[in-house]
Amino acid sequence: MTHTKPRRQTVTLGPSGATLTDVVDVARHGVTVTLTQEALDAVAAVRRHVEDLAAGDVPTYGISTGFGALADKHIPVESRAQLQKSLIRSHAAGMGPQVEKEVVRALMFLRATTLASGRTGVRPEVVQTMVDLLNADIIPVVHEYGSLGCSGDLAPLSHIALALMGEGPVIGPEGDQREASELMAEAGITPLELREKEGLALINGTEGMLGMLALALHDLDALADVLDLTAAMSVEALLGTDRVFVPELHEPLRPHPGQARSADRMLRILADSPIVASHREGDSRIQDAYSLRCAPQVAGGLRDTLAYVRQVAEREVAATIDNPVVLEDGRVSSNGNFHGAPVAYALDFLAIPVADAASMAERRTDRMLDPARSAGLPAFLVDDPGVDSGMMIAQYTQAGLVSDMKRLAVPASVDSIPSSAMQEDHVSMGWHAARKLRTAVENFRRVLAVELVAAARAIELRAPLRPGPATGAALAALREAGVPGPGPDQFMAPQLADAEQALRDGSVLAAVEQVLGG
Asked: Where would one find coiled-coil regions in this protein (predicted)?
């Protein structure tokens, strides 16, 4: 979620692969990629096996045959270079809007990681050219539709492979769209003349869905912390109790680590709050509503889902996905590792707690706006009832976002449409699961931004009572970001946009963490 640049300037790519942090740094922050000599040597050694097979008489899939349903067609030596070109040109069949630059960069980096493993059979210059394009910030145009998440993210990866050949549209460092050949010439990069197996090796992977999962995990790690913050601020604003967050009610009784962490964070965020202390005695309410009292359980469920999904993503980053793949003994073997089901399930799973946590946040916002349930706050947090509408329609926007997130939580991975003349008769739809998760993450940030604005305004309306140190720091950071406090109605959309940006750039969370001590 935080878009500040990392301290390091280079990611080194060797045969051992990459990390999820590497993916985010290269994709989002433009960190330079360097290939180790060890990786290049390993790639060259494996390539010799492919060249031996190419010179032999035995048909080998991807080297001397056609592809997919045409795998039984033997291709003569003189046609194999054209075979690779035809594969990429035909498979670069995407349609729809352009995919975001950071997604394409993630896809390119992850495929370069696979190629550098020395198990795909490409020449070293194929890996180097992919890295050179990344470092020159020449990014192929990839479209929204074209992957079924099986046999790899075929169309998206094919558009990238097309650019490596010096063909097709790309986005340059200045953001202008031009032909790949032009920008490569200006950057001093020689287009590739693909040889046996190389076209197939460039497109048979799950890197598109995996790249989007890595970015989503990075964003949701921070948004889980934001969720604890906005929930705690709502508890404070609604004169709720912090006693339900004490540790003896969590880990000893229900040992879910995410729940314990969220409860601990909420308790620390509310520590030393004069507002919370003001109603510890003489409060006639026995229990808070579920959206307040059960916040750690829901936020904790999100955290534990993130932990599981991170395991899946780390395993996939460590994998070598290609078909056929070159084994250690030199055999070139067909396999089904390109099937995106493990990643697709994780992507779909993650969309569920994100939607549910957003739904709970919206309920807290609505409670703050309703005078029948807000413990004395003015209706819709207005300045002048009847004249002002306060945050009435901001909650409409929030509710609309949540409704959309519920739809996005419907799994994509349970669908399958057979393709390639029934050769590929079951597909994962993992790319689609990833695309909808990206939208859900963006909506989640917006939902929390609305809760943050509402809770901050409600806390200030409790004056002369003061918020606690941590919630006060969040409130101050929000005001520094340009979001005004209570008063007559002002243009609301810019306020919500500024709050969203303050969550995106990490400034609100950083202010709170400084109080909490990390």
From this structure: none
Query: Does the pLDDT of residue 72 top 90, yes or no?
Result: no
Rounded CA separation 418/9 (Å): 44
Question: What is the distance between the alpha carbons of residues 499 and 365, in angstroms, rounded to a whole number?
Answer: 15
Q: Rounded to whole angstroms, how far apart are CA atoms 365 and 237?
A: 10
Backbone angles phi, psi at 125, to 5 degrees: -70, -20
Domain 213-318+350-417+424-516 = CATH 3.40.718.10: no
61 is catalytic: yes
Catalytic residue among 61, 308, 345, 396: 61
Q: What is the dihedral of CA 198, 199, 204, 205, to 10 degrees?
A: 70
Position 330: which residue type?
Answer: G
Q: Classify residue 44 by its DSSP letter.
A: H
Q: What is the 3-state secondary structure (H, E, C) of 402-445?
A: HHHHHHHCCCCCCCCCCECCCCECCCCCHHHHHHHHHHHHHHHH
Homologous superfamily (CATH) of 10-205 is Fumarase/aspartase (N-terminal domain) (1.10.275.10)
pLDDT digits (tens, 9 = 90+) for 299-333: 999 999 999 999 999 999 999 999 889 888 888 88
